[in-house]
Design brief:
Largest sheet: 2 strands, antiparallel
Strand order of the largest sheet: 1-2
Number of helices: 23
Order of helices and strands: HHHHHHHHHHHHHHHHHHHHHHHEE
Radius of gyration: 29 Å
Number of strands: 2
Distance between the termini: 66 Å
């Protein structure tokens, strides 16, 4: 209170000729205005804290209008207040006014961002504000033109890149696909947007993995429960980000902008002319690998040229597929291992391990496939697909003893793996559930197990090459 009174006295004593409320020197105003400003800030802040948003609104609006750079939290509080008023307002006209006012909060925050940055330790980001403004349009003003929202999202992810909020990156891809639906000339940009969004969302996932590792390390050293709580928070953000990653792929694939055949035609004619252009070759490899066009000539040729210029993970992977297609399996696997070694992103490295495991699965080398799946899980415990791959391996080679009924217990282990896949990675739920429904049909009959001394709920070890513990259903 003493600090507040002192601030008021200083402001009252200040000369009256400076610009009122919009300069950092006189951001609270001058004279009596400064007293009104500080009182309004105090009243609105207390009411926001008490979640009395309707009472907070008039005082907040006064500060927002008259003293736009008084405090940074004028904008965060304004978003809270208006969001809650939009929810609770029953008058459609008034609700619409609040929605438009919410957009104005973001606009004014962008207008004064340089001045606001001078008064906060946590620097504001124009890209972040643009992204949140776009999300406000999507949530509250659904009739906003697609082009308007797309332009905001595109600028936001351009500025933020791998620091973008995962929801913004996902919506960026969605609105790019929507723009393409209305304007087919957007196809080249859609491909470019997909490339960027795919890279940015992986950077977001890597960042969350790093944060979890740092939190866990601090918790082990200091035992501060806040670090454990934060690790759990980042874990949940990984779950949500993985769903966003899957959606990004789906938006592009479902747009119909480019099939593997289309891309092969587009790129094949130009690869020879660009065989020394690493930037062009990397683009071809990236787009076609993300669309799983790894059997197409354009992808394979671009990979070979790129690897000769600059050894990269993507180029090595592409060359591996080329040798695999030729039937030179040992050489292919050597290149796949090189791809894993060259990859720096933990998220992508885990995905590559899963892909190589899937190749071994296609060759009926189930133990080897499981080994790569386990390697993927050691890199990224929040990755569900390796668990599904292991379940597929077990189901493909379920026999571990001479008793057919006991061999059928392997399907318990398969379902255990699939349940684990869903638990750690919600993005794979649909696929996991499909396999669960299939494998449950092969469970052994309870009476036959009972005759062998096994009853429901009891533990059993599925031996042989599988060697996992499970429970009788």
């Amino acid at each position: 209170m003493k600090k507040l009174l002192f601030a008021i006295m200083i402001l009252v004593a200040t000369g009256i000729n400076a610009q009122n409320g919009v300069t950092n020197e006189f951001r609270f105003g001058q004279g009596e205005d400064s007293i009104k400003c500080l009182q309004a800030i105090s009243i609105s802040s207390i009411n926001v804290k008490n979640k009395d948003y309707k009472t907070a609104y008039p005082e907040w609006k006064y500060v927002f209008t008259e003293f736009p750079v008084a405090r940074v939290d004028t904008y965060s509080n304004g978003i809270k207040i208006l969001t809650e008023l939009i929810k609770s307002e029953t008058d459609p006209a008034k609700k619409e006014e609040y929605k438009k006012e919410l957009i104005l909060v973001y606009d004014q925050q962008l207008k004064y961002i340089d001045k606001l940055q001078e008064i906060t330790k946590t620097k504001l980001s124009a890209g972040q504000i643009m992204g949140r403004k776009a999300m406000a349009y999507i949530q509250h003003l659904s009739n906003t033109p697609v082009d308007t929202i797309y332009a905001l999202l595109a600028k936001s992810v351009e500025l933020e890149q791998g620091k973008s909020e995962y929801t913004v990156t996902e919506r960026f891809m969605k609105y790019s696909a929507m723009k393409y639906k209305a304007d087919k000339s957007h196809s080249d940009q859609l491909i470019e947007d997909y490339l960027n969004a795919s890279v940015y969302i992986v950077e977001v996932l890597d960042k969350y993995h790093d944060n979890i590792e740092a939190c866990n390390l601090r918790y082990q050293e200091n035992g501060d429960p806040r670090d454990s709580i934060n690790a759990t928070k980042y874990s949940k953000m990984i779950d949500a980000s993985r769903i966003s990653k899957s959606n990004i792929d789906a938006y592009f694939i479902n747009s119909g902008a480019a099939t593997c055949e289309d891309l092969d035609k587009i790129y094949a004619a130009n690869i020879e002319a660009n065989k020394d252009n690493i930037e062009y070759l990397n683009k071809v490899i990236s787009v076609m690998s993300m669309l799983k066009c790894t059997d197409n000539d354009a992808y394979l040729t671009a990979s070979e040229y790129a690897l000769a210029i600059e050894p990269t993970s993507k180029a090595a992977m592409g060359c591996g597929y080329r040798y695999f297609k030729r039937g030179e399996i040992d050489k292919a696997m050597e290149l796949f291992d090189q791809a894993i070694e060259l990859e720096s992103s933990v998220t992508t490295k885990a995905e590559l391990c899963h892909k190589v495991g899937s190749v071994y699965y296609s060759l009926n080398k189930y133990s080897k496939a499981r080994s790569y799946a386990q390697q993927a899980l050691s890199l990224n415990s929040k990755f569900g697909l390796p668990h599904i791959l292991i379940a597929q391996c077990y189901a493909a080679a379920p026999d571990w003893c001479d008793d057919e009924t006991l061999n059928a217990c392997t399907y318990y282990v398969c379902v255990d793996r699939l349940e684990r896949a869903k638990a750690v990675d919600p993005s794979v739920k649909k696929e996991a559930d499909k396999y669960i429904a299939t494998y449950k049909k092969y469970y052994p009959k309870a009476e036959e197990l009972f005759m062998r001394g096994h009853s429901s709920g009891k533990a059993i070890t599925v031996g042989g090459w599988i060697n996992e513990n499970t429970k009788i259903r």
